[in-house]
Amino acid sequence: MFKNTISNLSRIRQVVEVLVRYGFEDVVTSTPLRRLVTQKRRLSWQHAERPVFETSRWERVRMVIEELGPTFIKLAQAMSNRPDLLPEALIDEFQKLQSDVPPFDVRLAREIIERELGRPITEVFSEFEEKPLGSASIGQVHKARLLTGEDVVVKVQRPDVQEKVRTDLSLLHELVRLTAGFLRNHGLSNPQDIVDAFERSMMKELDYTSEARSMEQFRKLYESYETFSIPKPYRELSTAKILVIEFVSGCKITDKPQLLKWGLSPEKVAETGMDIYLTQIFEFGIFHADPHPGNVLVRPDGTLVLIDFGMVGRLSKQQKYAFAGVFIGMARQDARSMALNFRRLALTADIPDMRTFEADLNDLIEDFALLDVQDMSMSDLADRLQNVIYDYKLQVPGAIFLILRALVILEGIGKVLHPRFNTFEFVRPYGARIIAEQYSPENILSEAQYTGTQLLALLQTLPADVRQIMRKISRGDLRLKVELSGYQALMRTADRLVSRTIIALIAVAFLLFSGLSLLGRYSPDMRYWHGIPVLTWWSLGITGFLFLILLILGTQKRKE
């Protein structure tokens, strides 16, 4: 059970020290992590006054994450897109995290490329720039030129990063196991599921072939678009640890002076960018999930280019319809429609009172319905929607939060380029298009076919299932398993009461026996002490001992 704990002991001790340094003694003292801290250090927690306590608890969480390194920073950045799980104040702190790290030696980059391709670098590239274009926690990017003359960029994974990430993921699993009770008491009900999902995401990010596949998929979807381009990945020169991509020149989408210098209309560029992004969400159901200005370039001819496909979001057809339905219900000022679409969107939604839920959504609608379209902000709406999701503990797909975050980023880009830019004006026509698609004859026929297939499968298995149940009933083998949750504390209390009642009854029985023993007639061999039979003294002693046990048990209960 403690195999991983032992193998990661030094790293766990480091984590504990960082937690203590930033004032999270309760995380340590309330969990088995306290065993890793000396008694001398424990005493210092109670007396040492540290300036770090002048900061808020959420700021200290961010400080801890920054000091623990890239894997923890990436986890926090991923969690910053999940307002259904974390309070807004903590998300604000996580969004401040930066994972930029210094580049590693170019000689190591060359060695990795040659090892992955199985040949000298000079047999692939005629030029390879020593200075990287950029560097991050997973890898860094170099500009190069193929022997065939094409300019490319080469993403090279950091040496030993996979082993380091796996070690930290193993550590995260162990930390969650050790602190699960503490985390649940502070509102994080499924910490293990979060780490499992993050592990899948990290393993995917560590495999550059996954990013290459995403790029090829986008290129196929947008092959007929003249105003949008995705760089070409060179799959024959790419592996899990290196990725060779077509080099694209251009300026950041927010570089308004350069756009004007090229004779481009910034307003038109902003409108094109929003149109392309909404097409990804509402038509294709697959979207670039990190459209910050550095990842959206503009060519001199006005073509938009998306780069860095390490983070891609996906929506199923039903999720797409439900998400659009939330916005459509809001536009129509229909709180009930919004509530129903929220329930359709949620993976699990245990809403105890739908009337209260609808009333809260109606308040949101009224707040935004009174605003002029120019005063409406996607950022404000995203915050309100995320608060609703968090307050009602709705488990919605993570892609939804990526979309909301991306829309907020795009609105910020749009306002830099377009003085009258309004996200809602762009979303509105897509809502009408989604309704038309949802109720189109083709989609209705597809849904009918799916329902028919499910019904046919049920009818095929139903007779066999019924026969099996009937056989078990006839043999008396049918068993029903009923599991009641939430009654553990009550059962423990009842168990304590029953135990004490039994002890009390036995004590009373001995007390009664002591009284009756004084009336008995005994043989001359009976011993007396102070004129009272020894048998009576023994009975009184047992009675006193039992009452003492009851007194101790009662004192322990009050301390609890």
Q: What is the share of helical residues?
A: 55-70%
Strand content: 5-15%
Output the radius of gyration. Answer: 33 Å
Give the overall shape.
elongated
| Poorly predicted runs | 41-50
Q: In terms of structural class, how would the helical and strand content be classed?
A: alpha+beta
Domain Protein kinase: 127-440
Transmembrane segments: 394-413, 501-522, 534-554
Organism: Hymenobacter aquaticus
InterPro entries: ABC1_dom, Kinase-like_dom_sf, Prot_kinase_dom, UbiB_kinase
Task: Please name the defining characteristics of this protein.
alpha+beta, single chain, 60% helix, five-stranded antiparallel beta sheet, ATP binding, 22 helices, 13 strands, elongated, transmembrane helix, 560 residues, ABC1_dom, Prot_kinase_dom, four-stranded mixed beta sheet, 4 domains
Account of the protein in words:
By secondary structure, the chain is α+β, with helices and mostly antiparallel strands. It has 4 domains: 1-99 and 178-184, no CATH class; 252-439, no CATH class; 448-481; 487-556. The protein contains 22 helices and 13 strands. It has helices at 3-7, 9-21, 25-29, 39-47, 57-68, 70-79, 88-94, 106-117, 161-185, 191-205, 208-221, 256-261, 266-284, 317-331, 335-345, 354-369, 378-391, 398-417, 423-438, 441-475, 488-517, 534-559, and strands at residues 125-128, 134-135, 139-146, 151-157, 228-229, 242-246, 251-252, 286-288, 296-298, 304-306, 312-314, 528-529, 532-533. Strands 1, 2, 3, 4 and 6 form a 5-stranded antiparallel sheet that branches. The protein has a 4-stranded mixed sheet with strand order 5-10-9-7, with helices on one face. A two-stranded antiparallel sheet has the order 8-11. β2 and β3 (139-146) form a beta hairpin. Residues 127-440 form the Protein kinase domain. The chain crosses the membrane at residues 394-413, 501-522, 534-554. One of its GO terms (molecular function) is protein kinase activity. This is AarF/ABC1/UbiB kinase family protein.
